[in-house]
# Entry
Amino acid sequence: MWLIRRRIFILQLLLLAVIIVFLTLFTEHYQLLYDKPDCIQTLTVNQDDPRLYFETDKAYKTRLKLQEKIIFGARLKKLSQEVFNEREGYNESFLDSLPIQRYDIPDFRPKRCLGIAYKRSGTRVSVIINFHNELLSLLLRSIISVLRSIPKENFHELILIDDGSNLGQHFDLLEVEPLVSLWAVKVKYIRFEENMGLIYSRRFGCQIASGDAVLILDSHVEVNPGFIEPLLDKVDSNYKFIAAPTFDFWHTLNKNKVWTTEARILAFDRYLNWINTDAKKKESNIHEPFKTAAILGGAYMASKQFLQEIDYFGRGMQGWGYENIELAMKYWMCGGEVYNIPCSRVLHYAAERSPMNHGDRKKAEHYLHNAGLIIKSYFPEDVFNDFDLHHNVSKDVQKDIEEVEANVNVLKKNNCHRNYRWMRRNLMPKVDSFDNDTTIASNLQSNKNCIGLVQNANEPAMLFFKKCPSASPECTKLRLTIWDELRIHDRMCLDWGYPRIRFISCHGQGGNQITYYNAKRKEITNVHKTQCLVQYLNSTLLDKGPCTSEEKSSLGDFRIREFDFETIYSDSLFHSDRISTY
# Structure
């Protein structure tokens, strides 16, 4: 089946090439008949488009001619729109219809950013953009918008890395090197004969960069003037700081829809899964840079010196995936700091396809390999063993054991004394994650007997008491978290807001899901400390009831049970006084 699809695709490309040759030879004047999207002002080349400071006369004329060819090709691509949309996950005919140099990029910066005057910087910036099978119009738009936004005194060089693009399919990428070679600025153009992967390409780019700082970018972004000054301001203040802009996303298959994002702290669990946080900034300081545990991988600025000290990206990592988390971790572990800069915005063209959900097994394996290698390098052995139990990566990671040792040695060489537990305590807000780093006490029991979970069909889960050893398989491993929740499994919390207590999905809003433990009186109570976990005499079920035996319960007679946790983490990162003694 795949051979048939491949042949059909090749025939379509040949047909497209024939049409282009025919129209080029026999048509002197043409007009682009294209439905005008609402979000752009023009689909024709603006001959008054100003020349950029780095363009020679020849480069300027070459760009205008190239833009004519791209816009003309947009009409042809629309004839086979489904084929081209599926190729890399973009609406290619629409994107090719946009000018290479746009002036109508939406500006989503907080209003207070517009009044900030940043001091002039003398830092020389190396811009690094790597690409693989990128849409030509997107790549050129990315390069030009970034270079246009950088003051002349700060721009040092452009490093373009073609990471083994398939020039048979993407033959128009052959236009890039001749164009940039005409520019009156320093350009390093590197082409790998085979696809080495994003991480390798960016490491290589950082190694050959000769600027004071590097600006690493995806090849499908656009920025506004004023994008770089806030980044420079933060990196100039300390060479151990890394600065990342805030992203807005344009899903081009929905041509007029741009998703804006709020400035949020990015958090991840010890298995490197992203965690949603609700760390919104107050309106009064929404424009100010803030610390974050991690950054997105599409754009960031860092000093060349500190990147060199921490050996750039982790050794042994393949393809792409998790390199941004790994880099941020090393910054924090080695005494650096990671910042999100709300006054610096990037418009990111988001593809509708991803290697993780479109059957690209090789790239999906890179994800697991990289995650396993990072965990093996920077986390305790038991965390890696648990990750391996679910993903079976030990054999794969073992092949790169020398790289793991090299990563560990980087931490030793730089006296990197912080770890993930430090990051979790100091950087991350309340997150919804099942791991020991958020556990105050675990394995709830009563007089060393079992607390179990019962759930009948179509009914919520409830607790019961059974006289059996706490080590029994029937025992439910309940744990008390740093957010005063009594949890079971990963995301089920005890909720006091129903006529009878039950376990439902944790919502993270406190209230009825707050559970306190009084270690002195050995009581489990609700947020108001008016209801306790009790056992009714005519049932093995545990439920809520009055906290004193003098009060009556509408559900009948009850017994106030004493509860213990098998393990209380006195050496936890978090204060042991969270175990209340009110």
About this structure: The longest strand covers residues 337-350.
